[in-house]
Amino acid sequence: MNRYFYIDTEGKQKGTFSPQELRQEQVKKDTLVWTQGMEQWKRADEVAELSLLFDTASTMQAQYTASAQTSASPTPQTPQLMPKSWMVESILVTILPFMLCSSFFSLLGIIAIVYAAQVESFFNRGDYDASLQASREAGKWTRIALWIAIGWVLLIIIAIILMFVFVGSMAGLSEMLNT
Questions:
Q1: Read out DSSP for 78-141?
Q2: How far is CA 13 from the centre of its chain?
């Protein structure tokens, strides 16, 4: 969930506030607001996340909810933690196998990197479910790339061992033929 600054009626900058807190500050449609990621100040009614502030039905619902919460015992909300992003792991399973054995299969880790980048983005926008789903996908693709890299390295090790066995047996065979 974004935190916003706004300019009050006296022209002073105030902030930061969540959208709910902006409602309590009685921000109007033409109030200028700004949050991280915005290029310039915008009217509050031009920001999609703040459009609910000016919907009369949701405003009445919020006032009803606020009055109900003050009369009832307050329940502390536990902040949700950001799901694991898998960014470091996905970068490692992309770069290290490629450097060690130049396996193009390790490039599957790029898919994991894309999902890992989405985790924090979704979480910062307040979309926890999408953030959790992106985390699951990043973990899945990281594991896939990891197991493919392990399999590829094992195949290379087996091929090297078989090559030494073959060369050794050919050397032994040539010695037997020479005697």
A1: PPPPPPP--HHHHHHHHHHHHHHH--GGGGGHHHHHHHHHHHHHHHHTT-HHHHHHHHHHHHHH
A2: 31
Q: State phi, psi for 163 to the nearest 5 degrees.
A: -65, -45
- Positive/negative CA dihedral, 7, 10, 11, 12: negative
Q: What are the pLDDT digits (tens) for 46-99? A: 888 887 777 654 444 545 454 545 444 444 555 678 889 899 998 888 888 777
Cβ atoms of 7 and 13 within 8 Å: the answer is yes
Q: What is the largest CA-CA distance in the chain?
A: 106
- The answer, yes or no, to whether the previous bond of 65 is cis (omega within 30 of 0) is no
Rounded CA-CA distance 22/10 in Å is 16
Q: Which helix (H) or strand (E) holds 162?
A: helix 128-178
